[in-house]
Design goal:
This protein is mainly beta. Strands 13-12-11-15-18-17 form a 6-stranded antiparallel beta sheet, with no helix packed on it. A 6-stranded antiparallel beta sheet has the order 23-22-21-25-28-27, with no helix packed on it. Strands 1, 3, 4, 7 and 9 form a 5-stranded antiparallel beta sheet that branches.
Length: 480
Amino acid sequence: MKKLFYDFKEKIILRFLIIWLFITVACLHGPLALTQTITIPPLVNPLPVEAASPFGFNFQPYFPGTCSFDTSGTWAFDRSSGNVGPNGSTIFNSNSLLPSAPLGALLVKRSSGAYEFAGAHIQLNFGTYEYVYFLINDIPGAYSDNSGIISVGWTCSDITSQPALAVSFTGAAGGTILSSDRTINCINTAGVTSGTCLTSSYPLGAEVILEATPSPDSRFSRWYGCDAVTGSNSSQCLIRLFSYREVKAEFIAGSALLEVALSGTGTGKISSNDNKINCTRQQVGQGTFNTSGDCSASFPTGAQVALTVVPAAGSRFTNWTNCDTANDAAVCTMKMNGDKRVEARLDGAPDPTSPPAFSVDGAGHSNSLTKHAVINTPFTYKLVVTGTPDPVLSVGAGSQFPPRITFDVATSTFSGTPTALGVYTGAIVATNSAGTATLRYTLTVIEAAAEIPTLSEWAMLILFSLLLGFGGWRLRKFAL
């Protein structure tokens, strides 16, 4: 038991030193280059298989091929039994690792977990990365009573040939497998494979990185047979070539999800050219909207989907968000190279608009105004201005007004009492969101007109003149 303990401890220490040495070398030299040759760990020959070890001794040739094993030496499968050779004793136990083999016999444990009788001689075929364990046939848990070591010598064939790398496809869709150095460039189109899919140009121990790229109508699923998988969507496969290797990339028919949404203060619908999308937005309350219908659908990877937005009555289309291409304002084209979401904004229709217009003395759409004002006499004139929304008035640059005459832009009114004769010109400008109108005015200040007698005043004047003439004649006659 003590010897078993020390042997076990020595194995643990040895493995620890090997791991430490490997990490140290990796840190000093950095990662291996793409085609750097890796030294294959030497295999012990012969293999020292201890009877007291329940795990046995591992053998892995790293290469596919055939190996022959010849055994020498003896061991004991318990303290009371004598030493036996690799063919074992004459005792069988149904609880042993391999009940069909005698206790003390040399066994082979495959990487699959199955046990085989090895005995004094056995020949084994190894696949890629396949390994075995050599150990004594005994009852599990009873190995502490065993003692001795048997030596297993080996010779292998077909393990020094140039390694080869083959890539292939599985699944219902196509794509490309490309190595980082482009030695492998294998293409699968509609089930037909072309390009370089097999090579033996890599040196023994080379590391090869393969990249899987799906065709436009497919999606990469997974790798089979890689040593490590990295990259975006696990699309890269790392292979270490110690032997012939075969790697498969699985591509499946791809699909992408397209979601549409409607926002804003308006209502309407979005539909796709194949009617798989038919999404409607309705108002159900003040500021509350409800979306119904088919607002998402799956499309084949690479497909182009045309979306059309149709505003409802009283609404208008404003803009797209996350649209790939919007050549037409109401039509958005999406390329389905992945899951996508696009949004159309609908707002309430704007109020009707009309450009400004001036009306002078009842005549609509006038662009000039001519008025007379009497000096020292109050003057008032109100412009009529129309337009939606209500126009904003302003006085044009360089405009002139008679002294004490002003224009009120809020009431569109000329008012005041002119104090100087003359001709005064200028412009009034009306502006709203629909346009601009300009009215040019001329204000003339004149003298007050001379008073003309009325008809009754003329009659009194004539009567006074007649009376004055008659009275004069009578005075001259009396004087005579």
